[in-house]
């Protein structure tokens, strides 16, 4: 059986769990990371020298980097999450990369400040800069979604998974948000998916 190491409040672990739930892949999850430790043991470092989560072991094949993991799982189980059409697939890939290189770097300081830092240790200036930057980058996603239901077109694909994990953080944080009607419509559609509700739409911790 597929084994997934990682605490279930991690955005990158949630990508993998959501992907598995969507495709009804059986897995066993082992808590690791942050308060659970594990990631600094020699055994774990042997699997993942970065000491980060998630890591998977699929019948002896060890893989880390959350986006690579969900690409692998979607390709292996070859369903609608991983479309045959190369252009749709490339578009999904593009938004997965964009989540890691534009969206997450923008929102991370705000998320870490508000959710993972004690109030007396927060830097309000850094958090406000992060909020503004995130609103700015989400304008790009909002324009993109003006003419399509999902990241890569009319259907839900793995391209929506990293974005959907990050947008939950934006929606669930008690912050001021500009109106982004297309992002909101897309989020409302994600929120109807049982797998998203089960593993992503959890209280932020
Ligand atoms: N690029 C990596 C980043 C992995 C990463 O930063 N994971 C975080 C959790 S979201 C982590 O392991 N933090 C340290 C810890 O939990 O101990 C991926 O996408 O898998």
In short:
The chain is α+β, with helices and mostly antiparallel strands and 205 residues long. It is 54% helix and 8% strand.
What does this structure look like?
It is a single chain. With 205 residues, the protein is of the alpha+beta class. Helices cover 54% and strands 8% of the residues. It has eight helices and four strands. A four-stranded mixed beta sheet has the order 2-1-3-4, covered by helices on one side. Strand 3 and strand 4 (61-64) form a beta hairpin. Helix 1 (11-22) packs parallel to helix 3, helix 1 (11-22) crosses helix 6 and helix 4 (86-116) runs parallel beside helix 6. The longest helix has 31 residues, at 86-116. The radius of gyration is 17 Å and the shape is globular. The chain starts with a strand and ends in a 6-residue tail after the last helix. The model has no long low-confidence stretch (mean pLDDT 97). The structure holds glutathione. Glutathione binds at residues 10-12, 33-34, 39, 52-54, 65-67.
């Amino acid at each position: 059986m597929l084994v997934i190491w990682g605490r279930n409040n991690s955005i990158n672990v949630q990508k993998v769990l959501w992907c598995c739930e969507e495709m009804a892949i059986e897995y066993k999850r082992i808590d690791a990371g942050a308060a659970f430790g594990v990631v600094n043991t020699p055994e774990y470092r042997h699997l993942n020298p970065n000491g980060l989560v998630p890591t998977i072991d699929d019948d002896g094949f060890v893989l880390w980097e959350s986006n690579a993991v969900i690409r692998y799982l979607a390709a292996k189980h070859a369903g609608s999450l991983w479309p045959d059409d190369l252009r749709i697939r490339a578009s999904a890939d593009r938004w997965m990369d964009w989540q890691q290189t534009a969206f997450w770097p923008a929102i991370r300081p705000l998320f870490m400040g508000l959710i993972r830092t004690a109030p007396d240790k927060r830097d309000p200036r850094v958090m406000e800069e992060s909020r503004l930057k995130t609103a700015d980058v989400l304008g790009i996603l909002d324009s993109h979604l003006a003419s399509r239901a999902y990241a890569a077109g009319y259907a839900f694909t793995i391209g929506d998974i990293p974005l959907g994990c990050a947008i939950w953080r934006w929606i669930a944080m008690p912050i001021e948000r500009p109106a982004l009607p297309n992002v909101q419509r897309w989020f409302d559609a994600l929120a109807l998916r049982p797998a998203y509700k089960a593993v992503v739409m959890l209280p932020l911790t």
